[in-house]
Amino acid sequence: MIFTTQFQLRLNNKTMKQKTLHISFPDEDMDLYNEIMRESALTYSPVASVCRRHIKKGILNTPQREMLVPA
After folding, report:
1. Phi-psi region for residue 31, left (φ > 0), alpha (ψ -120 to 50) or beta?
2. From the DSSP assignment, how many helices (H) and strands (E) are in the chain?
3. What predicted TM-score, i.e. pTM, was given to this entire model?
């Protein structure tokens, strides 16, 4: 079960909503899910922060040409 909360930021009297991304893990990727949860627990970091950090690393280390090829 996933619980999400929508936060709103107020900047210069404007309300901005954070963008969200919802992902699911099929059975064959349970090891990935478990590793993310483990890292989150060991570093006392929110799961979302751990995921964003790994997504950024993946994007920065993937050549532009490779990103254009469908999965």
Report:
1. alpha
2. 3, 2
3. 0.69
